[in-house]
Fold this sequence. Notes:
The chain is α+β, with helices and mostly antiparallel strands. Helix content is 29%, strand content 25%.
Amino acid sequence: MSVPVRRAVVADAGELARLRQLSLTCPAVPWTRPRAVPDGPWVEECQEAIAAMLRDQDTAAAFVVAAEPGRMAASAMGLLLPRLPGPDSGKPFNGDISTVATDPEFRRRGYARAVVTALMDWMTVSGCKRISLASSPEGEPLYTSLGFAYDDPRMSWRVR
């Protein structure tokens, strides 16, 4: 069965923000009760940021499976991040998959695989050497099956 995937447009920003909020509810401990993610101004800010991201067709994309007009069943969003050439690659970008989400009533149908694969294809055609993402424990089997592996550990810093 072929899954009908399309590239998201600015009009999809509200649904993409809803799915992003949903993705943030993934529990810290696999297969336990979802975390509570409060509504608030951040949801509207997220919608505006997604709309701006989708206007920049060269460095950002989202792919979706529609459940019905105006409602998405699944989505994957990502960015192309400029990189400096090195001895192993002159490719201009690394890809970052920032959000993958499937509405609970549409899970186990291959929708996440379809939207992530479409996003990976777009990133590769756009000149990516490496694509990275952060996964919930529930998502790890999917990403492993698509060829993702734990890379050398990276450190990060956050403002507190």
